[in-house]
Specification:
This protein is an alpha/beta fold and about 325 residues long. The protein has 15 helices and eleven strands. A five-stranded parallel β-sheet has the order 2-5-8-1-9. Helix 13 (about 300-310) packs antiparallel against helix 15.
Length: about 325
């Protein structure tokens, strides 16, 4: 076999191996989704978007009225993934040390005293930041380094968080008293923001059947932490053609009012558009969706399907946009088309 033939054979073997891994990925995804659906009625698109984000290594912000299953969804994901789970109920008096941990002075059995670091709840695999907008910006900002770099810095010491590490936060859009809007820098750390609508009649009927009986639905662990890491690595190996990549870049550019090809409503209502982190989030979640569809490359449809969840919280509306009640999601639709 010639050297050229050898390279061709290697390409074929690599493609075959990739297809096999993608098939396994899709199978794992289907098993996870099926287990979550045992507890969560409906919301299939929401479940898929959350899983796309987790397998892309990102964080999720869930927004919706109380009692529609946001917290239950996060707890179920932790059970299905067999990951170390911690929950923090965010309140106005919550301090950064309550979240990250702190150094304490302890006395050993010999009477000697030394400093020990007590880890906070952020040292886990899945952190549920429940009602995150109830904490002050000071406490919210304590999560910035954790979410962006997977580390915690305290008193000149840097700690690495165990991987995988996800923050799944919830917030209630209705109440204003005792809440603090998330700073733009905090919002940008969330790969996606998902708005949960009120359940349909069929969903409510299913909820009654599942949770008013003698026993609640039980889910099984189907994914180990090391499998999650392998799936995250596989997502990044999915190819994206230049024309598809340029389409993604153009979507981001069209969210900026000073861009020459920006839609009229963007120029009229948007103050600031998406950041480069938004572009990376758009491409990574699209790659995860491509795998689930059994493809080795990202399509235009993949980008369109995830664009709203990835970009709706990254657009800062100006005064006119806020006064007219313009929807960020409607702006994203114009940028995508």
């Amino acid at each position: 076999m010639s050297e050229q033939d050898a390279f061709g054979a290697n390409d074929i073997d690599s493609t075959a191996a990739m297809k096999k891994e993608i098939a396994l990925f899709s199978d794992n995804f289907a098993r996870v989704k099926a287990e979550i659906s045992k507890r969560i009625a409906g919301y299939q698109n929401v479940i898929e978007m959350v899983l796309f984000t987790l397998f892309s290594g990102g964080h999720v912000l869930l927004e919706g009225v109380p009692g529609i299953g946001k917290t239950q969804l996060v707890k179920t994901i932790a059970d299905v993934f067999a990951l170390k789970f911690k929950r923090v109920q965010f309140t106005p008096d919550l301090m950064p040390a309550d979240l990250l941990g702190s150094h304490v002075l302890i006395e050993d059995e010999n009477g000697g005293k030394h400093i020990k670091f007590n880890e906070g709840p952020v040292f886990c695999n899945i952190l549920l930041a429940d009602e995150i907008n109830r904490a002050t910006p000071k406490t919210q900002s304590a999560l910035l380094e954790c979410m962006a770099e997977g580390t915690v810095s305290i008193a000149n010491t840097r700690f690495n968080l165990e991987q995988p590490f996800f923050v799944l936060a919830t917030e209630n859009p209705l109440e204003m008293e005792g809440t603090f809007s998330l700073p733009e820098a905090q919002l940008d750390r969330f790969m996606v923001k998902i708005n949960l609508s009120y359940p349909t009649f069929e969903q409510l009927d299913s909820i009654v059947e599942r949770y008013s009986s003698a026993s609640e639905p039980v889910v099984e662990c189907v994914i180990l932490p090391e499998t999650v890491l392998k799936m995250q690595k596989l997502v990044r190996q999915v190819a994206i053609a230049d024309d598809v990549k340029n389409y993604a870049i153009n979507i981001i550019k069209k969210t900026h009012p000073d861009y020459k090809d920006a839609p009229p409503d963007v120029k009229k209502y948007v103050k600031y558009g998406s950041s480069p982190r938004g572009l990376l989030s758009l491409i990574l979640t699209a790659k995860a969706r491509a795998i689930i569809k059994g493809r080795l490359n990202v399509s235009f449809e993949d980008l369109r399907a995830v664009s709203d969840s990835v970009l709706n919280h990254r657009l800062i509306l100006n005064f006119e946009g806020l006064a007219d009640g313009v929807s960020a999601s409607a702006i994203v639709v114009q940028a995508v088309n």
